[in-house]
Amino acid sequence: MPVYRQWSVILLSASLFITCILMALHPLASLQAGVRGLAIWWDVLFPSLFPFFVISELLLGFGIVHGIGTLLDPLMKPLFRVPGCGGFVAAISCASGYPIGAKLTAKLWQQKLLTREEGERLVAFTTSSDPIFLIGAVSVGFFHNPSIAVVIVLSHYLGALLIGLLMRFHAPHAPASSSPNGKGRAGWREALQAMHQARMEDGRPFGEMLRDSVISSLKLIIVVGGLVVFFCVLLESLNHSGLMHWLYRCADMVLTGVGMPTALGDAIVGGIFEVTLGASSAGAASGVPLAYKAAAAVFVLSWGGLSVHAQITSILNDTNLRYPPFLLARAVHSVISPVLLLLMWKPLMGNSDAAEVFYSLWPAPAQGGSALIAYLPFLFILVLSILFVLAMLARIFFKPIQRPE
């Protein structure tokens, strides 16, 4: 075993042992943190993620993803250097949030529709938060200010788009996967052929496919919930032990260096571990300008928290996709998005018309984001439709310079 692996095992074992001691020393706080994490999973994550997990499995089984991938090839390959099926992953990930992008990427890799490098590019920019959390939980629930939803959403998703464009330079000499239909064309006939071929290769009847989809999705959603609870308990134990003091001091030094208030240290440190805790701390920070509080929240949302990182790692464990490219993409995303927010703050927040247009599309209820769940299928269809239109335009634009077969 390499030396670095030996040391990593020793450090991990010691960390887990210390965590166990801290939980034993503070049982009530650990219990309350576990209940809080379980509530987050049951109230938000389960209803918003589980249906998309099941539907995505069924769409893969019926070959619909393969057909969509054929149509989106002219857009996704030139821009992001991923197959067209990555457009489907991007659309459904935009609607439901992490970790469904990693789940679908792993499935596509297992079906040999992606190479390792393409999968690493895809999971890097399709790991983003969902609109329910951005609008309902963060803007309304934590900040009590629906007007900031537009700038938070735009900065977060524009940052993800920039990550996708930057990740196209990842592994520049790696070979690309072949087109789903094997001919490199992107018409409706080829899409139907790819869908039919994928359905025949799967071969499972609908009842068996539905059962397998539910079982697989339940396993994954339980893993997601368990990780959320674990990191909530871990962070609470570290807070009560006083070990977080050094992290807070480091965060204060970094914030001072970039010219931001040190009162956001709690949000930054909490967000490193868990998204919800960091975003809620950013909203509760006192004596801090709203723009800086929103920038801290976007930093946390784009980083994802170690809880999300653990979810992605557990999903990619059955593939040969590597974690370091994903880690680098999260770090860059967490820097790009706050910068974008601060740049867009004055133009967008000073324009009430932009906020009114946003509210007409996404009404933010006073009770939080639960009422927004009904809008997720609409958002998925909207994003997918936009990708289809862009793919058609790309096909027309690039047709004159395509090589004849």
Would you give an account of this structure?
With 405 residues, this protein is an all-alpha fold. Helix 11 (244-257) packs across helix 12. The N and C termini lie far apart (49 Å). Mean pLDDT is 84; it is low at 400-405. The chain has one domain (29-399). The protein has helices at 3-25, 27-61, 64-80, 85-96, 100-110, 116-125, 131-142, 149-167, 188-202, 206-241, 244-257, 265-273, 275-284, 290-303, 305-316, 323-349, 352-361, 376-398. The chain is 76% helix and 0% strand. The chain is built from 18 helices and no strands.
Structural category: mainly alpha
Q: What profile does the largest beta sheet have?
A: none
- Helix segment count? 18
Spans of at least 5 consecutive residues with low confidence? 400-405
Please give the alpha-carbon distance between the first and last residues. Answer: 49 Å
The shape is globular
What is the total tally of β strands?
Answer: 0
The pLDDT mean sits at: 84
SSE arrangement, N to C: HHHHHHHHHHHHHHHHHH
What percent of residues are in strands? under 5%
> Number of folding domains?
1
**Rg of Cα set:** 22 Å
Query: Helix proportion of residues, in percent?
Result: over 70%
Organism: Paenibacillus terreus
Keywords: Membrane, Transmembrane, Transmembrane helix
Transmembrane segments: 6-28, 40-68, 80-101, 122-142, 148-167, 218-238, 294-315, 327-345, 372-398
Domain Nucleoside transporter/FeoB GTPase Gate: 45-156
In short, what is this structure?
With 405 residues, this protein is mainly alpha-helical. Helices cover 76% and strands 0% of the residues.
